[in-house]
Amino acid sequence: MNPAATSLGKDLIGLERLTAEQIRGILDTADPFKEISERAIKKVPVLRGKTIVNLFFEASTRTRISFEFAEKRLSADTVNIASTGSSVQKGETLVDTARNLEAMRIDMVVIRHGSSGAAQFLAERIPSNVINAGDGRHEHPTQALLDLLTLRDHLGRIEGLRVCIVGDVLHSRVARSNIWGLTKLGAEVAVCAPRTLLPIGVEDLGVHVFNRIEEAIEWADALNVLRLQLERMHAGFIPSLREYNRVFGVTRERLERAPRDVLILHPGPMNRGVEIDSDVADGPHSVILNQVTNGVAVRMAVLYLLAGGAPDRAEAAKAEG
Amino acid sequence: MPTNEVRPLLLRGGHVVDPSTDQDGIADVLLREGRVEAVGTGLGTPDDAEVIDVSGLVVAPGFIDVHVHLREPGGEHKETIASGARAALAGGFTAVCAMPNTDPPIDDPAAVGFVRAEGMRAGQARVYPTGTVSLGMKGERLALIGEMVEAGAVAITDDGKPVANAGLMRLALEYARTFDIPVAQHCEDHTLSAGGSMNEGIVSTRLGIRGIPNASEDVVIARDLLLAELTGGRLHIQHVSTRMGVAMIRDAKARGVSVTAEGTPHHFTLTDEACEEYRTEAKVNPPLRRPEDRAAVIEGIGDGTLDVIATDHAPHHYDEKEQAFEDAPFGLVGLETALGLVVTQLVEKKVLTLAQMVERMSCAPARAFSLPGGTLRRGSIADVTVFDPEREWTVDRNRFLSKSRNTPFHGMTLRGASILTIVDGHVRWRRDDA
């Protein structure tokens, strides 16, 4: 493998700007890292001496913990900053926060922020590596990478797969990152949602649009079911959660009519009985917990690659000190 | 007024372009005691006159920008009346109309008097105040429009917080007829723009930025054209950015509706792709739109549907623009780049002749807002813009006279530069290296 082709550069902002080779490089690096989390002593010295700040301006449980495990299992020193109880709450600007962190000589920043473009904003202003852990409605690249890894684990490939993203694509950074990642790796991608929850011009991103969930299920090899937030109903995008479940819910009855087994992914946290029924979430084709496991491996891979590692040296790196 | 102490000023040998008198050729211009005394070839030099050789340059009635935000009172860290009026001079504008959406808003005669007095005290470009349509810009009931006109307001507008209530807009258009002033409207339905930060389309979808559809502007343009037709009031539509907006205004003018409209340099130069990489300098409202909209704005300026070129000069402190895109404020500074953009984008590309350029930047704005100027007719006010349509220069925001630097045009090479800006018969600004 050509190291230049898989190098990620300084930052991971989104999948839109990565090549298929770079994305495959991350997935190939994640594979050997999976094993670390299965050990009794879950720690390797890959990032020993590196300082990483997890800068979370939005509430997050799963992503923040997943990053923290990935960092700790690679022996990095980590600091968590949440917006509540920090200088951010006191009105400090993002650029001042960035400069202050930089002044403490950190190596990497993992940032989650409610504004689209915030990760890039930070990346342009500090020399540390910046990893986007979700910015507004823009991208959530590590979530899409773990989705890709999970699809590849269970279906053996990405190319040629038919994957439908179901739900609130309009507000979803997970959807955007998945669309870029899947299309770059050769999958066919569709979205299915009420039109009020689809962005204008989504077809121009190279995806099909299904109005009805039944058609999407008939077409797809896998569904990636997005969380439907209660606020969307209050903002008037849908009349009610009950109606959403009735028209767009991924239910066992609907899946049983599919011509093939359909793999079920969900980035979490789930609203059982809204976008997904419990017997689907807990059913035989659900890989929702595998996604969570893969999340740690994918994030280890990203951290390792940004720190200067290469996919073909990942296996050896685990053993070195 | 210090005008009578001043020597007469003779501008010798320039290319005089004044559509109001059908002048388009080499001539001298003599200014005396704040008035245009004569325009003609081979004018004799009065004994005490100052003579400036302007051969090779264009001499035009002073440019007027009917849409600027000078931020005072309340936003003096962004701009003051004095700094904004100075920036206007540097851009070749002899007069500007200050929008009333300050803090507090200009919604009573005392506030209008403040803006007018500060403008006169600054002694730069003329500053014409405008007043709000509604009290406190709340969109509920009419402001003290008659008293504000008596105090010097030349138009009313709730720019920045457009009149949402159709009934109130009708009343404003009717009431303003009494004073024969225009009602200027920033056309936007906030229930459709709904917190958006840029044009709604493929670029906003990719960036994950909430979009502002063309329809949010178009529905208000349509409504206000109907209300202007109903009331016979003078409607002035600010910064038209959409193809349907241009088309509807063209149709309304053909029906005889009393409407004038603006095209801005940023809307005829840029598209929403300027927002790529989350560049907040390109965040402006109405937003930069698709190429077909930009083409329609250019066509509208060309055929006079958009009769007025205005900048919507909207200064912001760099801290305010140094934020994530959706957190940054709307607006860009335009006074010091407008002339160059008009020449480069419209004159060089044969959309406008020099005479049409002067019409859009001087004569039409004066008519739309019933201002003195916009002509070099004998006896009119001695406001003159002298510019070099050939001169190339590179935009350097650090050299702006405006207090603010928020421009998407930094580093762009333009053709066309102001050389002398003359107000009331005085040279108020002169390019250093000219």
Structure description:
The complex is a heterodimer of chains A (321) and B (434). Chain A is of the alpha/beta class and 321 residues long. Chain A contains 14 helices and nine strands. In chain A, the strands form two sheets. In chain A, strands 7-6-5-8-9 form a five-stranded parallel β-sheet. A four-stranded parallel β-sheet of chain A has the order 2-1-3-4, with helices on both faces. By secondary structure, chain B is an alpha/beta fold. In chain B, 30% of the residues lie in helices and 22% in strands. In chain B, strands 1, 2, 3, 4, 5, 16, 17 and 18 form an eight-stranded mixed β-sheet that branches. A five-stranded parallel β-sheet of chain B has the order 9-10-13-14-15. A three-stranded parallel β-sheet of chain B has the order 6-7-8. The longest helix of chain B is centred in the middle third of the chain and has 18 residues, at 214-231. Chain B is globular, with a radius of gyration of 21 Å. Chain A binds chain B through residues 16, 93-95, 113, 115-118, 120-121, 135-139, 173, 176, 199-202, 204-205, and chain B through 200-202, 204-211, 213, 277-278, 319, 322-327.
Give a concise summary.
Chain A is α/β, with parallel strands linked by helices.
* Number of continuous helical runs of chain B: 13
- Helicity range of the residues of chain B? 25-40%
Global outline of chain A: globular
Q: In total, how many beta strands of chain B?
A: 18
Low-confidence spans of chain B: none
* Major beta-sheet overview of chain B: 8 strands, mixed
Strand fraction of chain A: 5-15%
Radius of gyration of chain B: 21 Å
